[in-house]
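A protein record pairs a chain with a discrete description of its three-dimensional fold. The following entry can be read in just this way:
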Amino acid sequence: TITEKETFVQYVERRIEERNDITESTKKNHRKLISSLEKFGKIIHFSDLTRGNIADYYNYLQGVVIEKPDGSTHTMMQQTVYSYMKFLKIYINDAIKHDILKENPTIGIKIKRGESEHGKWLTIEELQRIEEYAPTSDSLQHVKDLFLVQCYTGMAYADLMNFSVVKIEETDGVTTLSGERIKTNEPYFTVVLPALKDILQRYNYELPKMAQQPYNLRLKVIAEAVGINKPVASHWGRRTCGMLMLNKGYPIEIVAKVLGHSDIRTTQRAYAHILNKTVVEAFKRIDKL
């Protein structure tokens, strides 16, 4: 129950901790809203939740400067801005359901979703360059292998670091890998193909562990070494997996299952351009254009 002196920021903080319908990693993301609102400074109390202040907060987020590990900076990406605004709406609606707010001040404010994830994958030729790359150190070898595991399985970084041999099973005479995504608790399932099996056996099914920042920095070293002019990072492996499967003609439902997407529309949005290409290829095969 809200106390007379509880601010909106305090309310959000309390409600995040009270929720049992989201994972701890999701709560961690939601907590970012609290520090963001405190830095903004104009939305602290419930009385601050006006349409004008929320519009100003949206503009504020679009100008937030993010510093990268290499010291370079960029403004917050639109997809991240959209996420913060989504979190804000969640707790405004929560306050309405608990009869703390009477009206929704976000009505009429249009938030652009953004397409920051679109296209963040390697081409088949670029992936082949990494496969053929000969690392000059053990750490680069580990990063190369870890990234290829992501490309072959669609695992996110957190799931990669949580890999265990117990996730490997025999299903109808085929070696499979399955588990639940740490971020969403959604199940994923894929087949262990020979290239993946070779990597796993090299490490006796105990993959190297590495913090995300050094992992991403070494990935950039590998990308530069093989002539890939893209800001490659750990999540590119996951998305490259989806790209490879769609290019090979796997049904979108199978790709969604491998990636652990609970809603097939998530997969469709992420790979819209590839799906368009698939339609063209299908027409060519059927009508011999």
Remarks:
- The mean pLDDT is 87.
- DSSP finds 13 helices and five strands in the chain.
- Residues 78-97 form the longest helix (20 residues).
- The first strand starts at residue 65 and ends at 67.
